[in-house]
Amino acid sequence: MPASAKLLSIATANAPNVMTQTDVVRVAQALFRDRFPGIDRMLPVFDTAGIRTRQSAMPLDWYLTPRSWPERTQAYLDIAVGMFARAAEAALDQAGLKGSDVDVVITVSSTGIATPSLEARAMARMGFRSDAARVPVFGLGCAGGATGLALAGRLAQASPGAVILVVVVELCTLSFRMEDLTKADIVATALFGDGSAACVVRCGEAGFASIEAAGEHTWPGSLDVMGWRVGPTGLGVIFDRAIPPFARENLRPAMVGMLERQGLELEDVDRFICHPGGMKFIDALEGSLSLDQGSLDHEREVLADHGNMSAPTVLYVLDRARRQGLPNRSVVTALGPGFTLSTVTLRAAA
């Protein structure tokens, strides 16, 4: 049997600006009142989102002016490269490594377009070798953190001894718009924040957890559940179905099937480490997986402190769980466009 891939480190790096939910709802109410009929009926989503503060790529005032796609792209490039580097440097430092030790860089991001991609733009700052392999990944949305970690595990097993760095960066707030508002845009304004996270994975090394297995499940006919729409001013969010009810109804059988393929049952999992898409979504996960109400405490804390940052969010939860002490077996799980469930099964180091 090949040696298992080990998680050597995990680190996060916040976006540079802090927004309180109180400030966001005040500004949203003023901006949307004349642009979105029935805004008063939508405002409670800000109160029930479970968010106290969020971090954003740009100061709050920046979002109050209509922005073109080139302006949004420039903001993405200006901020995302720095967040990539800060998360990556922290993860490598924890692992006792340098940029020159990295053999493969996986970059996960779906909230901006960068060609050359972020790891190429950060190459000089990070000190990556010229022969380091680059794997940019786009389109995974909220599932990107789990899927990126799973991919790192597979690449580590395929190249024993190689240092695999996975960096996840999302600037969701850059999709905020005041034109052609939909209900989905209002919900996104109430939920989305920006963040980045990084992990170092290597086979045969001491780490805080082993990657036992990974899996994905994509539901047929679910392309309209979540995604981006392309408009003249950039990317706009798609939430065409109520996601919490979908998760409550469909998550459990998919999870059971994925665990069965690993020779496991739900009862073998000591802790589910979940992407907190929103407070109602967390409640739906607990209901679907038959968890006690309040079991997903780290998820609620990350949501309250950072909002829904898309792909990095589940890695923020994993970081908190690691700091408190991982149980014997945990399953990192996130759902994203496709509509796809992505999981990584971890075994804590002895």
Structural notes for this entry:
With 350 residues, the protein is of the alpha+beta class. The chain is built from twelve helices and 13 strands. It has helices at 21-32, 39-42, 44-48, 69-94, 118-121, 123-126, 144-158, 183-191, 243-261, 279-288, 297-306, 313-324, and strands spanning 5-14, 17-20, 53-56, 104-108, 133-137, 164-171, 194-203, 209-218, 227-231, 234-238, 271-274, 329-336, 340-348. Strands 5-4-6-7-1-8-13-12-11 form a nine-stranded mixed beta sheet. A two-stranded antiparallel sheet has the order 2-3. Helix 9 (243-261) packs across helix 10. The model has no long low-confidence stretch (mean pLDDT 92).
Mean pLDDT: 92
Beta-strand content bin: 15-25%
Determine Rg (CA atoms, Å). 19 Å
Please count the helical segments: 12
N→C terminal distance: 20 Å
Series of H and E elements: EEHHHEHEHHEHEHEEEEHEHHHEE
Principal-axes geometry comes out as globular
- E-strand count: 13
What structural class do the secondary elements suggest? alpha+beta
List keywords for this structure.
two-stranded antiparallel ribbon, alpha+beta, single chain, nine-stranded mixed beta sheet, about 350 residues
